Amino acid sequence: MERLRKAEWIHYANSELDTYVKFVNEHIFPKFILAKRGFDFSPSRRSSRGGMYADGPGINIAMHHYCKNYTGERLIRVYEYKSFDSSSVIGGFYTKDKYQKLDMVLLHELAHAVQYYAYRINNTRCKPHGPIWKNIYKRLREEFLNPHLGDQVALKAEYDDDVASITKHRKSTMPVATKKELDALFARAASKI
Ligand SMILES: [Zn+2]
Fold first, then answer.
1. In this predicted model, which residue has the larger pLDDT, 68 or 114?
2. What separation in Å is there between the alpha carbon of 104 and the centre of ligand 1?
3. What residue spans of 28-99 are helical by DSSP H?
């Protein structure tokens, strides 16, 4: 990805994170600091992370995976972890907004960073996607992402239509492609005679 586009995505992610951290400070932990923000654009980096780093709570985001292929408006299905993907509050969704997939990942990983901070403050432990994390993630999703998601029923219907038309298109073009291939084969065979 070119440098300018990378810088734009990093600028976007940083300003979103500033807003999210402000909310955490005002409503959950007044002294929480996001000590590390990593943005990794290497194509091989597939998964993001949020948790405790040497300097304190932090995140490291697999940017390439979330920012690639955005050349125009596109309806996509964004997936969350399988065990809560179907949740209407913390699950996956349909969107045409090119930033909402990244928003979801930033909120998800920030929730992990806050979770580890909570462990330290409250001297407790919990599962990575357990009740403490879910509660933090839910509050962040309801504040910053869910109110901005489009009509999910309508978007799902449009998405299903797209999938159906791609499948139909594939079937209908198959005999044409086969005929073309046959013509090419016959032409090659004829030229050898
Ligand atoms: Zn997670």
1. 114
2. 11
3. 63-67
Task: Name the DSSP letter for residue 91.
Answer: S
Longest Cα separation, the chain: 85
1 CA distance to ligand 1 middle (Å)? 26
The per-residue pLDDT for range 70-121, each reduced to its tens digit, is 667 889 999 999 999 999 999 999 999 999 999 999 999 999 999 999 999 9
% pLDDT > 90, the chain: 75
Predicted TM-score of the model (pTM): 0.85
What's the gap in Å between 108 CA and the centre of ligand 1? 6
Distance 84 CA to ligand 1 centre (A): 11
Give the closest residue to 94 by CA, choosing from 136, 141, 152. Answer: 152
Q: 55's torsion region: left (phi>0), alpha (psi -120 to 50) or beta?
A: alpha
